[in-house]
Amino acid sequence: MRTREQDNAGDNAVTLSESLPVQLPAGDVTLAGDLEIPENAIGLVLFAHGSGSSRLSPRNQAVAAALRGAGLGTLLFDLLTTHEEAEDALTGHLRFDIRLLARRLAAATLAVAENPHSHHLPIGYFGASTGGAAALIAATALTEIVHAVVSRGGRPDLAGEALPKVKAPTLLIVGERDEEVLRLNQDAHEQLQCTKGIAIIPHAGHLFQEPGELAEVSRLAARWFSIHLRRRT
Question: What's the total number of domains in the chain?
Fold first, then answer.
């Protein structure tokens, strides 16, 4: 299916993208996802959500649309199955199983790296909340495949001993008013040994719900991926 989208990260050009439903094998489960690749894409960004979110999250959908407007393909997919999501809604334990989320993200990465529609594209990760830690851990396992990471309001501290092993250029984006998460991001930033950056969005909270703040997240992410993924083409 072809869709037309407005570019929220650049010059307001209209881009044409191809939308493909995909099934991603991940160990003993299969994960549902939506792969969208604009014409002449310069890279592909996989989204790793957390904290009870899904591929239908309005925030991730908005960021993904902006990235596609900037010439980047996107893969939004569910890290948990429908049954697991129902279980997690009651217990909340799976969203903090960072190793499980990282393994599934890595499996999805290998699947799209072999997909005929996307195998030629350099890959980056966009992680949110606990998905930020999963993205960093998966990036350390796939250093030859993953070339950039962006974390939005993430918990990079949960990546633990993986932090100094990350090789992919990494940008941490966090809200100024998200004080505890900001402190955790600053500490994680110090531990990263790769090309790195930290962007503190003034007046923003954890969910970047303030007017214009999510658009700023999208702009920063698009710029980071455009720089670091373009170098791999």
Answer: 1
Q: Residue ranges of the alpha helices (H) in 25-91? A: 58-69, 82-91
**Quick count: other Cβ atoms within 10 Å of Cβ 131?**
30
Q: Could you give the CA distance from residue 187 to residue 28 in angstroms, rounded to a whole number?
A: 36
Which of 51, 156, 153, 54 lies closest to 93, judged by CA?
Answer: 51
- Give residue for tokens 């909270």: 205
* Average pLDDT of every residue of the chain: 89
Distance set, CA 124 to CA 29, 88, 131 (Å): 23, 27, 13
Instruction: Order across the sheet with 2-6: list the strands.
Output: 2-6, 14-26, 29-38, 72-77, 43-48, 123-128, 146-152, 170-175, 196-201
Which residues are bridge partners to 47 per DSSP?
76, 126
Tell me the residue range of the domain where 123 lies: 2-230
Tokens matching residue 24: 């991603």
Count CB-CB contacts under 10 A for residue 87: 14
Q: What CATH code is carried by the domain that includes residue 129?
A: 3.40.50.1820
Report CA Rg, the chain.
Answer: 16
Which residue, chain included where needed, has tokens 């501290």?
157
Q: What is the pLDDT of residues 188-223, one digit of tens each?
A: 999 999 999 999 999 999 889 888 999 999 999 999
Closest listed residue to residue 37, CA positions, set 10, 64, 6 = 64
Q: Give the Å distances, CA to CA, from 39 to 14, 20, 45, 225.
A: 11, 14, 15, 17
Paired with 41 in beta bridges are none
pTM: 0.89
